[in-house]
Amino acid sequence: MHPEQNAEDQGPRPAKSTNGNLGRLKLAGAVLTALGLALFAYFIYSVGFEDLIGGISRFGFVGFAMILMIFFLRMATRASAWSLSVYEPYELNFRDTLPAVVIGEAMSSLIPLGILVSGTSKALAVRHRVPLVVGLSSVATENLFYSLLTSIFLIVGSVTILRSFTLDESWVLAIDIAIGLIIAVLIFLFLLVIRQWHIASELCERLYQRGFARGILENGRLEVRLFENMIFGFYRRYPERFLPICLLEWLYHGLGVIEVWYILTRLSDAVPSFLTAFSLETVSRLITIVFKLIPMAIGVDEAGAQFIGETVALAAGVGVTVTIIRKGRTLFWTAIGLLLILKRGLSFRDVVNFRGH
């Protein structure tokens, strides 16, 4: 057998492996989604369908319109942070990034593998304005800022819950472990940027040198290297943008707390505390991250809300009602995102096919 033929034989193997991994992720996502739906049905049953309908009716059309606006402002903060994360001479303005963020949210919320395609779909949505590598690197840069501020938000929220409420020892241990993992992620992200670890491009180079997927990696490994360099270079080139981007990311989480607080004011006779809203948003954000394979974290989000609702002594079913109302506004903006996807000629197949180039 000739060496050339041997190399050609080796080429398809990573694709099969990749397809196999993707298939396993799809299966895991489908199973988790089914379990989430079962859990969601259980909480609907345990709280009582009539009580939930009563709470949603009490919330009303005006209340729903208000949280639609709050969520729009949340997406606007990330769109603004993204526009600040683009390298010159390229530029993305708010009109470019806001629709792309709505599209990314729709992809992330609607499908079990949304976490894998959300960022790519954003870059594809602005491909008429900037090259794909620029779009992807700017999305990744904004995501790093978002991850940093989200980690800090979760640490502060978790510590606040531990110090403010009496919890079972098993929950205290679980929260302590979560805090430790978040701190580890923070340290990793910090070292990744400061030391400029080219993990992705080095992996691609090793695969290429060993003869795997040479057709894809011939130019792909160089594009990945450029992608990483653009992310790392941003932090040296635009230090003055750090504070504005961080403030925008922090505002995103602040608006989340305000949203929960506003929903509680519509559902309760007494004025809720911001501590209660902060605790609910902390748990919701953590669950959204951990169970990203499940569309809209259905079921597990209700479980977390039920737990924290009991912890902060909310009326029965209020925490679950809050999550259902928030899912309603997510579905609304997902529908808007799907309309934008159709208008721009994008599809899930476009994103998957692009991941293979």
Q: Give the SSE order as H and E letters.
A: HHHHHHHHHHHHHH
Give the % helix.
Answer: over 70%
Evaluate the radius of gyration.
22 Å
Query: Could you say how many structural domains there are in total?
Result: 1
Determine the strand fraction and express it as a percent band: under 5%
* Global structural class: mainly alpha
Q: What's the total number of strands?
A: 0
The main pleated sheet reads as: none
**In DSSP terms, counting alpha (H) and pi (I) runs of 4 or more, how many helices?**
14
Termini separation comes to 29 Å
What coarse outline follows from CA principal-axis ratios?
A: globular
**pLDDT < 50 stretches:** 1-18
User: What is the residue-mean pLDDT, rounded to a whole number?
Assistant: 79
Structural features, described:
The protein is mainly alpha-helical and 357 residues long. It has one domain (3-194, 238-355). 82% of the residues lie in helices and 0% in strands. The chain has 14 helices and no strands. The chain has helices spanning 3-10, 12-47, 49-83, 94-110, 114-125, 132-164, 169-194, 199-209, 214-237, 242-267, 274-290, 300-311, 318-344, 348-355. The protein is globular, with a radius of gyration of 22 Å. The two termini are 29 Å apart. Mean pLDDT is 79; it is low at 1-18.
